[in-house]
C-alpha cells in the first residue's frame, strides 16, 4: 500500500488538495470516516466565492441552491427586535455543505483520486527520524510520501502526533442547526420575498444564546431553511439549557416563527467550529512529510456576522497541492514553500488581521447589553405616548431602564468596529 | 468450503422514514440508503467459518448501484468477493422475486456452494422470508436463528436459539444448506483499509443480460404480493407533562408518573 499522497479527511480542504494533486498526476488516496464524502460535513450555510473564483473556478458548475442577495442582522430579545438589512451583490451562495462536498468528491474521483470511505485513520505514521511517512488505520499501515491532514476542527491526529494540545473550550463554539423543508420552493420565496435564485442570510444576537457569546442564524436553501445557534463553549457553564433547545426557542420566537410556520423538520445536526481563527493554528503548517489544511489548521475566519470556512479550506487545500508539486521532496525544508504560499495568499494575512476578534466576540457583557440596549432605544424612539422623544432622550431613558452604561457601550462599539 | 452471504445492500434507514399523513405514502426524501445492519452478523458468521474450515466467502446482493458501497464495506471486512445483481427489471420485487434472483445468481456464479448464510431479517420490511424462499428455489434445507455451527463431513451441526421459547436447539442439516444468523449473536470484525483499497477488484456487477432471467419472474411483474394500501398507525399523543424541581424529587415524580401510565411496574427499588 503505497501512495504519493494520503489525504486524511474528505471535506472541502482535503478534496480540493486531492483534486489538484490527482489532476497533476499524483497517486492520491483520500481517507474519509463518513459513509460518503460530505456525509459528516456540516456548516451553517454559505460559501463566499471571491477567492473560489481564483482557486477553484470549477465551483460554478457545482450545485448552488441560492445566491445570497439579502443580509439581515437582528438584535433579538424576548419581545423586541431591531433588524439591519442590506442587499448584496452575488458574492456568496447557500447550499447544503453535503452537496458541495460530494460535488468536489466527484471532481477528485474523475481526476483520478481514490476516495476510501468508512475508514478511520487512527494515527499519523512516523519513521524512526520522526518524519511523517503515512497513516495507520487499525492494524493497517498505508505508506505515502506526503500526508495532508484535513481532519477538521477536532484534530485528534495532530493531538496524538504531539503537534497540538487538546482543544480548549475557549477556542471553539458548538453549532446546532435544523433544516426545515417548505412545501415548495415557491412558498419559501414568497415567505422571504426572494426571487428564483436569490437567497437570504440572517444572523441574530441576544435572545438565541440567552445573551451569552454566540448567535443565531438562518439561511435559505432551495426549498428549505437552515436555522441554528452557535454557542461559544467558554460560556457553557452559564447556559442552563441544552443548545438544541435554544434552536427550538429561536424557531418558536414570535419574530421568527411566522417565517418557518408549517415547514417540516427534515434533519438536524451539530458540529464544533473554531472561533479563534489563527490563534488555534498549530505551531507550523508544514512538517517533514506533513501539511495541515482547513479547520485543522485554524483556517476559519469568524467575525460574528461573517463566517468564512469553505473558501479558506479550499484555498489552503489548493496551496498544499501546489506546495507538494513544487517541493521536489517531502522534507520540512522543501515543504516550507506551503507556509510562504499561505503568507502571500489572502489566507494568513486575513486571519492575522482578525486575530483579536474573539476577544471582542467572547465578551459576555456585549452580548447582553447591546441587544437589550439597541432594541430598547429603537422601540422607544418609535413609541409615541405622552412624550415624543428625541433620539437622545430614547438613548438616555433606555440606558437608565436597562442599566447599560452608554459610555461603556460606546467604548465597546469603538473596539468592535476596529476589530470585527 | 464455499460460503455465500446474502445481504440487502441498500435499505432505507428505517428510523429516518416518516409517513406522509396526507397521502399515506413513505417519505423517502432525505432518507439515506444504508446496508442492512443485521447482515453483519451473517457476514461475521461466514467469515469465522471460512477462517476455521478454509475456502471463500462470496457476498451476493440484489440492489441498485448504490449497493456498491455496502458490498465494498463487506469486502473490507474480509469477504473474498462480492456480486451485485442489479437491473432495472429487478425493481419493485417482493421477497419471492428477490429470492428468485438471488438463487439464480448463486446457481450461476457459485454453483458449488456449501452454505448460504443470511441475516435474521432486514431493518426495513422485516419479513425474514429471503432465507427460506432462496432455499426453496435452490431445493436445499434451511434453518433460522443460528448462532453457532460446525461441519462434520457433509453435515452441518447448527445451534439455534429461540427467544420466545427460551430454548437452545441443535440441528443436523445436510449441506448444501441455507441458514439465517441470529441477530446480534456475532461481533462483526473491523473494516480494513487495506481490503477497502482494492475492494473494486473483488466486486462484480451482473445485470439480467448476464443472468438471463424470465422477465415475468423478476421485479414487480414477478411479485405475487402487492401493497394495495397503507394506513399509518397514529402516534400516541404526547403527555405534555413537565416535571421540575430538585433532581431527587424529579426522579421520584418521574417514577410515579411512569408507574401510573403502566410503563414500569412497581418494584421495591422504586419508591
Question: Secondary-structure blueprint of this entry?
Answer:
The complex is a heterodimer of chains A (420) and B (271).
Chain A: E1 2-8, H1 12-23, E2 28-31, E3 46-48, H2 52-55, E4 66-76, E5 81-87, E6 92-94, H3 97-110, E7 114-116, E8 123-126, E9 132-137, E10 140-149, H4 156-160, E11 172-181, H5 185-192, E12 198-206, E13 214-220, E14 224-232, H6 243-252, H7 257-260, E15 264-274, E16 286-287, E17 290-292, E18 301-302, E19 307-308, H8 310-327, H9 332-344, H10 347-353, H11 357-361, H12 364-381, H13 391-402, H14 406-419
Parallel strand pairs in A: 1-2, 1-10, 2-7, 4-12, 10-17
Antiparallel strand pairs in A: 3-6, 4-5, 4-6, 8-9, 9-10, 11-14, 11-15, 12-13, 13-14, 16-17, 18-19
Helix pairs in contact in A: 1-3, 1-8, 8-9, 12-13
Chain B: E1 2-6, E2 11-12, E3 18-19, E4 26-27, E5 33-34, H1 39-53, E6 56-62, H2 68-77, E7 81-85, H3 95-109, E8 115-118, H4 130-138, E9 142-152, E10 155-162, E11 167-174, E12 177-181, H5 193-197, E13 203-206, H6 208-211, H7 247-260
Parallel strand pairs in B: 1-6, 1-8, 6-7, 7-13, 8-12, 9-12
Antiparallel strand pairs in B: 2-5, 3-4, 9-10, 10-11
Helix pairs in contact in B: 3-4
Describe this structure in words.
- The complex is a heterodimer of chains A (420) and B (271).
- Helix content of chain A is 34%, strand content 27%.
- Chain A is of the alpha+beta class and 420 residues long.
- In chain A, strand 12 and strand 13 form a beta hairpin.
- In chain A, helix 1 runs parallel beside helix 8 (310-327).
- Chain A starts with a strand and ends with a helix.
- In chain B, strand 9 and strand 10 (155-162) form a beta hairpin.
- Chain B is globular and about 65 Å long.
- Chains A and B meet through loops of A and helix 2 and helix 5 of B.
Amino acid at each position: 500500500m503505497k501512495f504519493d499522497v494520503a489525504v486524511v479527511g474528505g471535506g472541502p480542504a482535503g478534496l480540493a488538495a486531492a483534486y489538484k494533486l490527482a489532476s497533476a498526476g499524483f497517486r492520491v488516496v483520500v481517507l474519509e470516516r463518513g459513509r460518503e464524502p460530505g456525509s459528516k460535513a456540516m456548516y451553517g450555510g454559505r460559501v463566499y466565492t471571491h477567492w473560489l473564483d481564483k482557486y477553484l473556478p470549477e465551483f460554478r458548475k457545482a450545485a448552488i441552491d441560492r445566491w445570497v442577495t439579502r443580509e439581515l442582522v437582528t438584535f433579538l430579545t424576548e419581545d423586541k427586535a431591531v433588524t439591519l438589512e442590506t442587499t448584496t451583490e452575488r458574492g456568496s451562495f447557500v447550499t447544503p455543505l453535503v452537496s458541495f462536498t460530494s460535488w468536489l468528491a466527484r471532481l477528485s474521483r474523475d481526476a483520478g483520486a481514490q476516495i476510501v470511505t468508512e475508514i478511520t485513520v487512527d494515527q499519523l505514521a512516523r519513521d524512526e527520524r520522526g518524519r511523517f511517512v503515512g497513516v495507520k488505520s487499525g492494524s493497517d499501515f498505508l505508506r505515502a510520501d506526503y500526508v495532508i491532514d484535513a481532519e477538521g476542527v477536532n484534530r485528534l491526529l495532530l493531538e496524538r502526533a504531539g503537534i497540538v494540545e487538546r482543544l480548549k473550550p475557549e477556542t471553539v463554539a458548538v453549532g446546532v442547526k435544523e433544516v426545515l423543508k417548505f412545501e415548495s420552493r415557491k412558498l419559501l420565496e414568497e415567505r422571504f420575498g426572494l426571487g428564483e435564485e436569490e437567497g437570504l442570510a440572517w444572523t441574530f444576537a441576544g435572545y438565541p444564546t440567552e445573551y451569552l457569546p454566540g448567535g443565531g442564524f438562518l439561511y435559505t436553501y432551495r426549498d428549505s431553511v437552515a436555522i441554528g445557534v452557535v454557542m461559544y463553549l467558554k460560556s457553557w457553564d452559564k447556559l442552563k439549557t441544552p443548545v438544541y433547545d435554544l434552536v427550538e426557542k429561536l424557531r418558536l420566537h414570535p419574530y421568527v416563527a411566522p417565517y418557518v410556520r408549517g415547514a417540516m423538520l427534515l434533519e438536524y445536526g451539530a458540529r464544533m467550529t473554531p472561533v479563534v481563527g489563527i490563534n488555534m493554528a498549530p505551531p507550523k503548517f508544514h512538517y517533514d512529510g506533513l501539511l495541515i489544511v482547513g479547520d485543522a489548521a485554524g483556517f476559519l475566519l469568524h467575525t460574528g456576522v461573517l463566517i468564512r470556512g469553505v473558501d479558506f479550506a479550499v484555498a489552503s487545500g489548493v496551496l498544499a497541492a501546489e506546495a507538494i508539486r513544487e517541493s521536489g521532496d517531502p522534507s520540512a525544508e522543501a515543504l516550507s514553500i506551503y507556509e510562504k504560499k499561505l503568507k502571500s495568499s489572502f489566507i494568513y494575512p486575513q486571519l492575522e488581521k482578525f486575530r483579536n476578534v474573539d476577544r471582542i466576540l467572547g465578551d459576555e457583557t456585549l452580548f447582553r447589553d447591546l441587544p437589550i440596549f439597541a432594541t430598547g432605544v429603537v422601540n422607544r424612539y418609535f413609541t409615541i405616548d405622552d412624550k415624543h422623544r428625541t433620539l437622545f432622550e430614547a438613548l438616555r431613558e433606555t440606558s437608565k431602564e436597562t442599566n447599560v452604561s452608554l459610555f461603556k457601550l460606546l467604548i465597546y462599539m469603538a473596539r468592535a468596529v476596529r476589530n470585527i | 468450503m464455499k460460503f455465500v452471504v446474502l445481504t440487502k445492500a441498500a435499505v432505507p434507514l428505517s428510523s429516518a422514514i416518516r409517513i406522509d399523513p396526507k397521502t399515506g405514502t413513505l417519505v423517502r426524501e432525505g432518507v439515506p440508503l444504508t446496508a442492512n445492519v443485521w447482515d453483519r452478523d451473517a457476514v461475521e458468521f461466514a467469515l469465522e467459518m471460512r477462517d476455521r474450515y478454509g475456502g471463500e466467502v462470496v457476498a451476493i446482493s440484489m440492489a441498485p448501484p448504490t449497493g456498491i458501497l455496502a458490498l465494498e464495506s463487506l469486502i473490507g471486512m474480509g469477504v473474498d468477493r462480492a456480486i451485485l445483481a442489479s437491473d432495472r427489471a429487478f425493481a419493485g420485487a417482493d421477497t419471492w422475486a428477490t429470492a428468485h434472483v438471488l438463487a439464480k445468481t448463486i446457481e450461476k456464479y457459485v454453483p458449488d456452494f456449501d452454505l448460504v448464510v443470511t441475516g435474521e431479517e432486514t431493518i426495513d420490511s422485516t419479513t425474514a422470508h429471503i432465507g427460506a424462499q432462496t432455499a426453496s428455489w435452490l431445493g436445499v434445507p434451511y434453518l433460522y436463528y443460528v448462532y453457532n455451527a460446525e461441519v462434520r463431513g457433509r453435515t452441518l451441526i447448527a445451534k439455534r436459539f429461540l427467544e420466545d421459547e427460551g430454548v437452545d436447539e441443535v440441528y443436523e442439516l445436510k449441506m448444501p444448506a441455507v441458514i439465517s444468523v441470529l441477530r446480534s449473536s456475532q461481533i462483526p470484525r473491523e473494516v480494513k483499509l487495506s481490503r477497502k483499497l482494492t475492494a473494486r477488484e473483488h466486486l462484480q456487477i451482473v445485470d439480467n443480460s448476464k443472468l438471463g432471467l424470465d422477465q415475468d419472474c423478476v421485479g414487480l411483474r414477478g411479485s405475487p404480493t402487492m401493497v394495495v394500501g397503507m394506513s399509518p398507525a397514529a402516534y400516541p399523543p404526547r403527555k405534555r407533562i413537565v416535571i421540575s424541581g430538585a433532581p431527587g424529587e424529579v426522579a421520584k415524580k418521574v417514577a410515579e408518573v411512569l408507574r401510573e401510565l403502566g410503563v414500569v411496574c412497581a418494584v421495591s427499588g422504586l419508591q
